[in-house]
Structures are given as structure tokens and as C-alpha cells.
Design goal:
Elements (H helix, E strand, L loop, with lengths): L24 H12 L4 H9 L3 H12 L3 H14 L7 E7 L5 H14 L4 E6 L3 H4 L11 H5 L3 E3 L8 H17 L4 E7 L4 H6 L4 E6 L12 H6 L2 E4 L7 H15 L12 E4 L8 H17 L2 H27 L2 H15 L5 H15 L1
Parallel strand pairs: 1-4, 1-5, 2-3, 2-4, 5-6, 6-7
Bound molecules: guanosine-5'-triphosphate and magnesium ion.
Length: 363
């Protein structure tokens, strides 16, 4: 053994350091064998449909890959999974940093697995593009859920653009559903356009808030209020209970000023504590009511169809854009043209036209 070459895998022994007795040689061999295998698309699909988490994770990694070699395989896996997806409820959760999203998802997720549901938690976090971290990196907030065999937690994909990150999450939903997850929770932080992206991939959109100093509506974007199917005031515990209930009343009043929703659903407000778990089950009851209403009036199904179309168009937009901006010829002309535009030598519109023409001629 000690003559062995250095190998980066943690499963290999280093010269001079014997493996602890607790490590089974058989298990090591088995894991190493499995790791080396590059399963085919068909094998991945079979694994996913069997509820195999390793296969699911590998397929997600494939979807998240930026290598064009992986794209065809990823698409094949997704296409085969599609007929087995869709049987789920997709819930979006947003709220500013610190509002308690992760803690809420831990409590809510545990409640749902307690009801016999299989819960997948995904995230759209555009900041992970920069920091390479993720809002779900703090898995410690989801200690119990992480251990739950009926839960699957996947941090946000990273990518160059929000559109790219969101698309990968949208595709991951399909994979999770095919693997038997019937409740999909997607967390996002209230940054930029990420809420809009998440809203476009979920059935129910939940806005988490905390009570402020009586000026609840300050600083809250109208667009987010409009998207919300429910506003839940978190941290309604201890000294906060009374304020949380006042905030709830204020939000309720504000929500009534918005025009009626196409879904026929009147957005609700509630207070809860992710820590004491007070009010958590009520959030699920609200979602169930929403589902009964919107499945009854067909809105649920129509919206999913619309969302599918939206993602097709979004992907085209996204890829055209990234193809254009990463084109070396365009990058070169762009630098020169930008200067010309700055100096008023050419109008911004004419310059754009010129660059686009160059690009399409190149294709
Ligand atoms: N008192 C009280 N504290 C809570 C509750 N929910 C979350 N917290 C606390 O609030 C802090 C932030 O909670 P997180 O769950 O990390 O919040 P988050 O929204 O996921 O934050 P980011 O991931 O940074 O966006 C933590 O210290 C939690 O313990 C609650 O219901 N009551
Ligand atoms: Mg968090």
C-alpha cells in the first residue's frame, strides 16, 4: 500500500497513514466503482424514476453544467423525465435577508414530511453567481430537514445571469418531480428580478415579512405585493406577537387595494413563528385552499402551460443574448463602437443596428 502513488481522492490511503478499522474496504471499493461510472442518460432517468437521490443529484449537476458536451445529455434526461413530472405543488418563498426564510422552510418542510409528503427545496440566488456561495449554504438552519429522508435540499445553481440560474432551477424542478417529490419549495432573496423569475415557475407565491415599527408598507416593492398569494409575518413570538398581528392587519388592508387576481384567489395574510412553529400548519391549509380553488377553475393548469411557454421564450432570449455578447468578433467591435457612441460619433440605435448586423452576417 505504501508504494502507492498520491491520489487526490479522499477514499485513498496516504502512504504511511493506515485506514481506520471502521472503514470497510468493500464500501470503499463500491463507492469508487460507482464514482468512476458515467451513467448514460437512460441509466440516470431509470435512477431518477426510482427515486434514487444519487442519480437525481448527478442529473442536476449535468443540467447545471456549462459544458456544451453535457447539454445534449441533460436535455435527453429532462425530456424523458417530463411525462413523470408535473404532479406536484410548487411554492415560491421570498423575503429580505434575515426575515427567516431558511428557518421557516425548515419548520414548514418538516411539517410537510410529517404529513407524508416528499419535499424538495431549491433556490434561485443570483448573488451566488458572485460569491459562489448560496443562500442555502447555511444548511445549519435546516438541520432537521437535511437529515429527513423525505426531503431533498439543493443549493442555488450559479451562473452568469439571473436568467441562466433561474432556468437551471426550472429544469431541476422537473427532475425532482420525476424523482417523486410532490412538494417543491423554491427560496429566493428579494434581490433584483429574482422574485419575478421564481414567480414564473411556481403555483403559489409566499412573501415572508417581519413586523416593523408601524410603517409596514415602507420600502416594499409594489410588484412583489402584487405577486404574493399570501403574506406571512414571521417571528410572531415573544414580545413580537402583538406587533406581528398589527402588521398582518395593515398588510391585509393594503392587499385589498390591489385589483382582483386572475386566479380568483384573494391573497391572505397570516402571522407565524418559524421557531415555535405557531401558525405553520395554517400556511399549508391556506395553500390547500388555493389549490382547491385554482384546480377547480382550471387556473392552476392554464398557468403552468403559460409558464412553460414563458420559459421557452426566456431561454431563447437568454441564449441569443449570451451568444451575442460572448462572440469574440462582437466583443472586439463592441469596444470600438462603445467609444464612438460615448463621443456622439454614432447614435446608440445605429450602433446597435450595426453590431447586430455584423453578428447575424457572421452566423
Ligand atoms: N424569534 C424568531 N427568530 C427567528 C424566526 N425565524 C428566524 N429567526 C431568526 O432570524 C435569523 C435569520 O433567519 P434565517 O432563517 O437565516 O433567515 P433568511 O431569511 O433565510 O436569511 P438569508 O438566508 O440571509 O436571506 C436567525 O437568527 C433565526 O434564528 C422566528 O420565527 N422567530
Ligand atoms: Mg436563508
Amino acid at each position: 500500500m505504501s508504494s502507492k502513488k498520491f491520489h487526490p481522492s479522499a477514499l485513498h490511503e496516504k502512504p504511511g497513514i493506515p485506514a481506520p478499522e471502521t472503514i470497510s474496504g468493500y464500501a470503499v471499493q463500491h463507492i469508487q466503482k460507482f464514482r468512476k461510472l458515467q451513467p448514460s442518460a437512460n441509466e440516470l432517468v431509470a435512477g431518477i424514476l426510482n427515486g434514487n437521490i444519487t442519480a437525481l443529484s448527478r442529473a442536476i449537476t449535468l443540467v447545471e453544467s456549462t459544458s456544451s458536451a453535457h447539454l445534449a445529455k441533460a436535455n435527453e434526461v429532462i425530456t424523458s423525465c417530463l411525462p413523470h413530472a408535473n404532479k406536484s405543488v410548487r411554492i415560491g418563498i421570498t423575503g429580505v435577508p434575515g426575515v427567516g426564510k431558511s428557518t421557516f422552510i425548515e419548520a414548514f418542510g418538516k411539517y410537510l414530511t410529517g404529513l407524508g409528503k416528499k419535499v424538495a427545496v431549491l433556490a434561485v440566488d443570483p448573488s451566488s453567481t458572485i460569491s459562489h456561495g448560496s443562500i442555502l449554504g447555511d444548511k445549519t438552519r435546516m438541520e432537521e430537514l437535511v437529515k429527513d429522508e423525505n426531503a431533498f435540499i439543493r443549493p442555488s445553481a450559479s451562473g452568469d445571469t439571473l436568467g441562466g440560474v433561474a432556468r437551471k432551477t426550472r429544469e431541476t424542478i422537473t427532475l425532482c418531480e420525476a424523482a417523486g417529490f410532490d412538494t417543491i419549495i423554491i427560496e429566493t432573496v428579494g434581490v433584483g428580478q429574482s422574485e419575478t423569475a421564481v414567480h414564473s415557475m411556481v403555483d403559489f407565491f409566499l412573501l415572508l415579512k417581519i413586523s416593523g415599527a408601524g410603517d409596514e408598507l415602507q420600502g416594499i416593492k409594489r410588484g412583489i405585493m402584487e405577486m404574493a398569494d399570501a403574506i406571512v409575518i414571521n417571528k410572531a413570538d415573544g414580545d413580537n406577537v402583538k406587533r406581528a398581528h398589527l402588521a398582518k392587519v395593515e398588510f391585509n388592508r393594503a392587499l385589498h387595494l390591489f385589483p382582483a387576481k386572475k386566479s380568483g384567489w384573494t391573497p391572505t395574510t397570516a402571522a407565524c413563528s418559524a421557531i415555535t412553529q405557531e401558525g405553520i400548519s395554517e400556511v399549508w391549509t391556506t395553500i390547500e385552499k388555493f389549490l382547491t380553488l385554482t384546480k377547480g377553475n382550471n387556473y392552476f393548469f392554464e398557468k403552468r402551460k403559460e409558464q412553460n411557454q414563458y420559459w421557452m421564450l426566456e431561454t431563447i432570449n437568454e441564449q441569443l443574448k449570451s451568444n451575442f455578447f460572448s462572440n469574440p468578433g462582437i466583443q472586439q467591435s463592441m469596444a470600438v463602437t462603445k467609444k464612438a457612441v460615448q463621443n456622439d460619433e454614432i447614435s446608440p440605435f445605429a450602433a446597435a443596428q450595426k453590431l447586430l448586423e455584423t453578428y447575424f452576417k457572421k452566423e
